[in-house]
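Record 1 of the preview.
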Amino acid sequence: MQQVRVVIRTILAMLVLAVVFPAISAADPDGESHAGFPPWQDAGNAGQLEEAFGHGWFPDKNKWYAERYERIILRGVRRTSDIFQVNDVMTTLFGPAWANIWLEGENFLECSPPQGRDFSYALCYYSGPEDPTGQSADNPALPCTLSPSGKLANCKCYKLSTDQVPPKVPYFVDIHAILNKDIYLKTVEACGEDGSKCAPTTSIEAPVCSSINSNQLIPGADLVSVFSPVKKLDYFAGSTPCKSLYAGCMTAPCYDTGEKDANGKPLVDCSCPIFEGPFEIGQGADQGGGNQLQCELGGRNVWSAAHNPKSNNPITPQPPAGACFPDAPPDSGCPLYPAGSGSVDPNGAVCRTVCEAYSGDPAAGGVQVGYTCDSALCTALGLGQDLPWSVTMAERFGIMGQACNGVQNLDGLELITQVEKLAGCSCCASQICGCSEANISAQTNSEIIRLNAEQRAVGINPQCDINGTLCGGP
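->
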């Protein structure tokens, strides 16, 4: 039934497009000879659009564009038409999957990275211009440039791995922007058209999450682009409305190149489909010092962006009413201990297992990484801090990487995350469960003391200074 409704909506949307683009007729099915442009085109971007659409094709023509985009991203990959097709469904009345449309917070499906192994995903939300943007002084340049054919954008994006961002921190996927048609239809069937039948609204994991976690979403890709809030404090809050050509990078295929930014953090190249219309840049227009973001980037550069027709807001995945996301940045992230501590029995079987996980086999050097990660991860993400701050991206992620390296292999990590969800707090399971500090090794205590000192040195208040926990010892 869900799939039938999707098909009906697609037919209706195509009728709308036939009215919006009357010059694209049945006699010209691919639009190859059409030289006009959509009615919302601004005169200022005519040159860029002429270059991108030199042969008169439009990304809005779903099936035509999906076939060509698929042909490009599968170049060099064994033909997989029987198991993979770019999603040509009109996922909303406002555009196809590559328009990256979101209508409400529930559209963002919460995905938990796999545990027990390394895993990576890309973040392209801040890509576009040749020069760095944002408020962190060490943000790298993340350009998005049209390919020679103009049929997609090659975007430089962050590579986030579970050895630097622990799998306790979720990532998010817009249900309307899933580029694999089969996985999109399966996800709609399981989660509903708006995503409200899956996490975070319920405990059901969306099919798209398992497809991404097993790297089966896009054939030939090393990883795919999703949304993560972990970089939000490095950019100015808010959004900037625009109307032009943009890259819709959600679930686009990405490839490792070995490139790193000036801080030694990995970057990847993503092949993003493009769309023309209204969109929002995921950061405020005012960049400080009199600098303003520009909708038109000039040359072949385009923004990686998304669009919310209802409110023109930046991407804001929302937890269910009255809930929060553990181990996520402020606004939607759960607070630090002791929030909701009475909701979990510290003497119960769950907490006994949690404490065993924390005190279990230490990582290399005799450090119990569950404790060290909790001592620095959430404060480095901004929880419990006086914001805005001047802490740089390199400082935050450097501390997180030291504190949490190896936590993805910690037995019991999933149960630790569940306790945090029940208690509604972040980096707090050992405190909630009353895990005895006598079980913390001397090496772990020394490392916590060092991490706390390093946090203070760059302007981060550690949990020890906020709630008197995870202070370390001799």
